[in-house]
Amino acid sequence: xxxxxxxxxxxxxxxxxxxxxxxxxxxxxxxxxxxxxxxxxxxxxxxxxxxxxxxxxxxxxxxxxxxxxxxxxxxxxxxxxxxxxxxxxxxxxxxxxxxxxxxxxxxxxxxxxxxxxxxxxxxxxxxxxxxxxxxxxxxxxxxxxxxxxxxxxxxxxxxxxxxxxxxxxxxxxxxxxxxxxxxxxxxxxxxxxxxxxxxxxxxxxxxxxxxxxxxxxxxxxxxxxxxxxxxxxxxxxxxxxxxxxxxxxxxxxxxxxxxxxxxxxxxxxxxxxxxxxxxxxxxxxxxxxxxxxxxxxxxxxxxxxxxxxxxxxxxxxxxxxxxxxxxxxxxxxxxxxxxxxxxxxxxxxxxxxxxxxxxxxxxxxxxxx
Length: 369
Hints:
Layout: H1 7-14, H2 19-25, H3 30-36, H4 39-49, E1 55-60, E2 70-78, E3 87-98, E4 102-107, E5 110-114, E6 121-125, E7 130-133, E8 146-156, E9 161-170, E10 180-185, E11 190-193, E12 203-204, E13 212-214, E14 217-225, E15 231-239, E16 244-249, E17 263-268, E18 271-279, E19 282-288, E20 297-304, E21 313-317, E22 323-326, E23 331-335, E24 342-348, E25 353-358
Antiparallel strand pairs: 1-2, 1-25, 2-3, 4-5, 5-6, 6-7, 8-9, 9-10, 10-11, 12-14, 13-14, 14-15, 15-16, 17-18, 18-19, 19-20, 21-22, 22-23, 23-24
């Protein structure tokens, strides 16, 4: 019988293997399985994966030849090369449950899903084929006529924990009620109501828009009344570590309530970007050059409709900061916000939707299905 190498040497070798090979190695011996499923190894592997070529996660349209009603997802490799800017498919996989789901967010290889207008939530790591069904939240959608919460998902680096945040607002007829804020922790596998609440009278631009996870906090577009009883737009921030709310001011042209419709916030490198649908013929993109400094908001450019009236649609940002645009007939291009350089990614998908940047990870490997 051969001797297993020392754990530190084994770790340095294993983290360089493809995930499928790592999972296969769990069958070599109990020692190897114990090392691979250890939370420390999973964290080391994640850190190593973040330095690899980035991946992009797309939701694919169902094929006419597929009889399954399960959603289909694909990872595309992004080599980010001027000589070869193509995206190419890395792998694809079915979501293991049937039905139609909404992506709450992605983080460190995990995808968080919910079923719209229900209390059902799931964590999914497609590469390790693990699905965790979350328990039912304690604040139900029908509790005291509460409805349609604003939901975000991210990672708390202070406690090495993944969290889902639900801000459940009252119906308009009961708008005097204070919203309930509930946090799910993967580490404890429990929901709990927290004491922090958004500013009084906070309303959300679109509760179905994903929250932007940046610098350990979730961000969403909201509005409230100021001291002069005027409606003011702002970005509501929830810190996942301290579990408190903060506010970030909008660019001055966007703080008017008439401009709230069609505004969404996205992660842009280590800061934020705003995408504003000015009209059916124009979209503006703003970037916060210095995170949390409202004075650093800068309008980078406007996207205008072509002569045929088609308006390219911003669908997200790559890790490099380039904005992904969906063009006429479904082709994808990227545009550098600083240089304005445009790359044809030579990938099409008329009904294909971009989800987010994605990092390969082993998160959930040590969790039961």
